[in-house]
Amino acid sequence: MPKIVDHDKCREELLERCFELFSQKGYNNVTIKEIIRELKISTGMLYHYFPSKKVLFESLFEYKPVQDIEELSRAFGNADQDKIITMFMDRWVQNKKTYQDLEMLAIDFFRSNKCKPDQEVFIQFSNFYRDSISSYLGLPQKTGMFIFIYLLGLYYATLLAPSNANFEEQLALLKKLVIDRNTKPQKKHE
Predict the structure, then answer these.
(1) Are 110 and 58 in contact (CB under 8 A)?
(2) Is 3 left (phi over 0), alpha (psi -120 to 50) or beta?
(3) Residue 68 backbone zone (phi > 0: left; psi -120 to 50: alpha; other: beta)
(4) Mind listing the domains of the chain with CATH numbers?
(5) What is d(CA 19, CA 102) in angstroms, rounded to the nearest whole number?
(6) ∠108-133-113 over CA atoms, to 5°?
(7) Phi and psi torsions of 125, nearest 5°
(8) pLDDT at residue 78, as a whole number
(9) pLDDT over 90 for what percent of the chain?
(10) Cβ-based neighbour number of residue 124 at 10 Å
(11) 69: closest CA among 123, 129, 16, 121?
């Protein structure tokens, strides 16, 4: 009897394992041969899902945000807006290393491939997070993009100089300055 393969699950497992490998060594320092060796898969299997290393990388940047937000949205249940905000904040703290790894991979890929600005994969990645933040937190898209950009900077700053920026304190400040301001009624100044 032929073996039944769940291709979506297999593809996701390959992406997760490749993410770990790229995170450890950087995009440019990982070869297709190394991926095949480290993941203990055949060349045909890898190329069945990803015809090139670039397609694999771009697939990672399509998969990770969807996986991230799907996991988070399943946890929301019937949570009210304040609880959803808290859950987002908690997720940003809990997954700090993953987000830092994604950011460093994007920078590594961009630099090593002499990319021009506005690469479609990065636009889609940014827009996905902008839209998710805006939608779930009930904020305008411009505010969602502001939060996304702020988080990118915060992840980068706490990676390079963690003693200069306490991640949790900065998130609390973000919540106070942006999210609370946009989700709570404002007092009118006379």
Answers:
(1) no
(2) beta
(3) alpha
(4) 7-183 (1.10.357.10)
(5) 8
(6) 15
(7) -60, -50
(8) 85
(9) 58
(10) 14
(11) 129
